[in-house]
# Entry
Amino acid sequence: MGVKLYGMSSSPNVRGAMLVLTEKGVDYELVSLMPPAWKAPEHLARNPFGKVPVLDHDGFHVYETQAILRYVDLAFPGPALQPADAREAARMTQIIGIIDCYLAPSWISNIGFERLIAPSFFGRPTDTKRVEAAVPLARNCAAALEALIAAPYLTGKTLSLADLRLLPHFDWLRLTPEGETILAGKSKLTQWFQRVSARPSAKAILQ
# Structure
């Protein structure tokens, strides 16, 4: 059966899983799944919350992006993407927590969705009130990451799951007018993005 990843290739969450699979050298099949297919019974059997991505590894189903990333890193050979050092590992988990709890809702669900998806995919104007309401938290997330980053990667000298989790979210935000303002002056984050986005996996997936 091999490895299948269900979801939209443009989704930052799906792209995070794709980046980790690629960095680990895993041969996988991307099964394109768009709404309303997320609510189909066969998908709900894999994820009762009707979300993507979902990973299927020889019949073993995993949902929630963070769980997928950690599973792939442990289940397959290739470079370790979770630091052995306790402090770096804690920082990785902390940054992933920031992304899941605060950054994704503000950067992606509100600003990114309204600026990039609502007009092009759903054919409706951007809800500017929703965008404006998300900006304070989005700014706070950017400031927190700028303070936490340890060059050359987020947690130190080696690439980790935190880098691959953040990369597609950063890529979305920077394409919005609010992102340009929020990320202005964030020199460490900007340098980090330039470095990580130059990796072969990023060049293949972020386009």
Notes: The chain has two domains: 3-75, 86-199. The beta strands are 3-7, 28-32, 54-57, 60-63. The CA atoms of residues 66 and 102 lie 14 Å apart.
